[in-house]
Design brief:
Blueprint: E1 5-8, H1 17-35, H2 37-42, H3 45-58, H4 66-80, H5 85-103, H6 112-120, E2 124-129, H7 135-138, E3 146-149, H8 150-153, H9 161-170, E4 177-181, H10 184-192, E5 197-201, E6 217-219, H11 225-230
Parallel strand pairs: 1-2, 1-4, 2-3, 4-5, 5-6
Helix pairs in contact: 1-5, 3-4, 4-5
């Protein structure tokens, strides 16, 4: 069956994730220090990170929705700072706008843009992510047909709902999709559980976990993908 869609993980597949998140949180902390200094007087950046992690454990029903979780963390801070209802609303809006701006300042791996531009000519492309990065704000939206997130699906990869809901909404069969990602569990196992072939992008040259089914193909750079697809 012909390949109709290539789905791509985002963080650590198209750009380094941890560097982006750490820089975003540092910038957000500086924003707090400038505009809401009581927060930084009470919490270090590490304490704010831990606080948000505990929030996710406490509210498992929204743990998959990183946007909602982030806004809820801002709400908790506003309540702690004894903000009025109007101040609370303004704080959440401004803090999230700043966070979103910084979150989408990513440094693409060098092979990403040239490869996506080649693939875009022959396939439909989609982003499938557990995170809340925005391909349109990043400047990749013109290369993708759509973006599908854990917030859209209601569960995170590797849960089968992530891919099943995508297939249902876009009327696609598993055999018509190939997923590309860096994470052996979330990306490769997650796709395989839904009957989707998966290509492992192993930029870090780590060993494949023996307890998992092997990926369809392993590549070390994204620019190897067009040639691999031509052989399928």
């Amino acid at each position: 069956m012909a390949i109709k869609l290539l789905t791509f993980d985002l963080d650590d597949t198209l750009w380094p994730c941890m560097l982006t998140i750490m820089r975003t949180e540092e910038q957000l902390y500086q924003w707090f220090k400038q505009h809401h200094p009581l927060i930084t007087q009470r919490y270090s950046i590490q304490q704010l990170r831990h606080k948000r992690q505990q929030l996710a454990k406490k509210h498992l029903s929204i743990a998959h929705n990183l946007t909602l979780l982030r806004k809820k963390s801002f709400l908790e801070l506003a309540v702690e700072m004894n903000y009025s209802a109007e101040q609370e609303k303004q704080f959440i809006q401004e803090a999230f706008e700043f966070y979103t701006l910084e979150r989408n300042k990513v440094s693409l791996y060098e092979d990403v843009l040239p490869t996506l531009e080649i693939l875009h000519k022959h396939y439909s492309l989609a982003a499938v992510t557990n995170g809340n990065a925005d391909i349109y704000r990043i400047g990749l939206g013109h290369l993708f047909s759509f973006s599908w997130s854990a917030a859209d699906a209601g569960r995170q990869k590797p849960h089968p709902r992530m891919f099943h809901s995508l297939m249902h909404k876009h009327q696609l069969k598993a055999a018509e999709i190939i997923h590309i990602g860096d994470d052996p569990v979330c990306d490769i196992q997650g796709a395989q559980q839904s009957g989707i072939r998966a290509i492992w992008l192993n930029r870090r040259q780590i060993n494949w976990p023996e307890q998992l089914n092997s990926p369809l193909i392993e590549i070390s750079q994204l620019n190897q993908l067009p040639a691999v697809l031509n052989r399928l």
